[in-house]
Amino acid sequence: MNASEREQRRWRLVSTSAAETEAFGARLAERMEPGDVVVVRGDLGAGKTTLVRGACRALGVEEPVTSPTFTIGQRYRGAGVTVSHLDLYRLPGLELEDPALLDDYLTADAIAFVEWPAAAAGQLGGRVYEVRMRHGGGDRRVIELDSAPSHA
Ligand code: ADP
Ligand code: MG
After folding, report:
1. Distance CA 45, CA 48 (A)
2. Nearest ligand, measured from the Cα of 14
């Protein structure tokens, strides 16, 4: 295994319940620092928001965590940290939009979680972690995490 292959090593977990996925999100959150971005990929119902909810709880967010419907994102106040939660599902491409659209969310003081990140490709700076989720039948969800962040 050469250095770049080692860099791209993936961790894989099969979650069998929403609670287990939340717990995974919580463990992930504990490794994050302000300014970090976690992109969460996967189909509808794969459990992206569930994972982000677990992360938010671990970071001290007490308000409800649901996918933003009428805005592209939310900023939550955690315990000593801000958590941004973006869902760009409805955003066709940021080049069509205000280039500053993400600025309110991707701030140096916030840990940001981004569902459906494709529209923000190339606009996510700092340490960017990559989580992929897919259905595994029933309540099973396959979760993969790249062990190293990409540096944009
Ligand atoms: P997404 O944000 O990817 O569209 P959600 O997290 O909003 O997905 O929804 C996932 C749904 O699947 C929730 O209703 C959740 O309770 C359910 N679910 C069942 N098993 C799991 C699991 N292992 N992990 C996450 N969610 C699960
Ligand atoms: Mg969602």
Report:
1. 7
2. 1
The pTM (predicted TM-score) of the whole model is: 0.93
Distance 49 CA to ligand 1 centre (A): 7
Ligand 1 neighbours, Cβ below 6 Å, are: 15-18, 20-21, 42, 44-50, 67, 115, 139, 141
CB 127 within 8 A of CB 149: yes
Nearest protein Cα to ligand 1, atom 15: 18
Over the chain (152 residues), the average pLDDT of each successive run of 10 is 61 97 97 96 97 98 90 94 95 71 94 94 89 98 91 61
Ligand nearest to the CA of 18: 1
